[in-house]
Amino acid sequence: YLLVKQRVKRMSVARNSSLFGNHTHMSRLGKQPIQLPEKVTATYAEGVLTIKGPKGELSRTIKNDVLVTLEGSQLTFAPAKNTKESKALWGTWAAHVRNMVTGVTEGFKKVLEIEGVGYRAEAQGNKIKILAGFSHPVELVAPKGVEIATEKGVITVTGIDVEAVGQFAANIRGVKEPEPYKGKGIHYVGEYIIRKQGKKGVA
Questions:
Q1: Rounded to whole angstroms, how far apart are CA atoms 137 and 131?
Q2: Contact partners, residue 112, CB within 8 Å, separation at least 6
Q3: What are the tens digits of pLDDT across the range 10-56?
Q4: What residues contact residue 92 under an 8 Å CB cut-off, 6+ apart?
Q5: Distance (Å, whole) CA 81 – CA 64
Q6: What distance in Å separates the CA atoms of residue 100 and residue 62, rounded to the nearest whole number?
Q7: Nearest residue to 93 (alpha-carbon basis) of 32, 170, 164
Q8: Global model pTM greater than 0.90
């Protein structure tokens, strides 16, 4: 009975550490101030943080659970309330703002490949037309700030907003996800696809 009780206690401790470990990691990120690089400026007014840089401008409304302080070219974050939610959001918002700074200085990119006989993709301005084995082409419209380029079966999605770039790339992949037998479809460059062996005919 004692052994079972100790085992249950250890399992409970492990479960709690896995639940709150991420919060601890995010709080660690929140404690680190963000130093704005050259040619990048920030303004914070009425709960809205705006970051401007060489590649563009991004704005986000910061929740009341997090305090943002802008001093010169340095941004710091702190939980506004002594609650689990506020402490968890502290690091999350710091990570969001780091992505904003990266976006306006370097930008983000997702690269996909389309494979299959007769499969192809063609970018036309802010639209992409995909032929992937359907009776008709599928057309997707990129959100504002996201650019598309296509060349020889390669689709490149770029922009300054990491979430917009990631979501639109996921939408493209979702048109024809790679099938596990021959890998036909749309996949990210470098993506590992678990292959299945095709059924063998009975002799």
A1: 5
A2: 154, 155, 156, 157, 169, 172, 173, 186, 187, 188, 189
A3: 444 444 434 344 445 455 666 788 999 999 999 999 889 999 999 99
A4: 26
A5: 9
A6: 13
A7: 32
A8: no
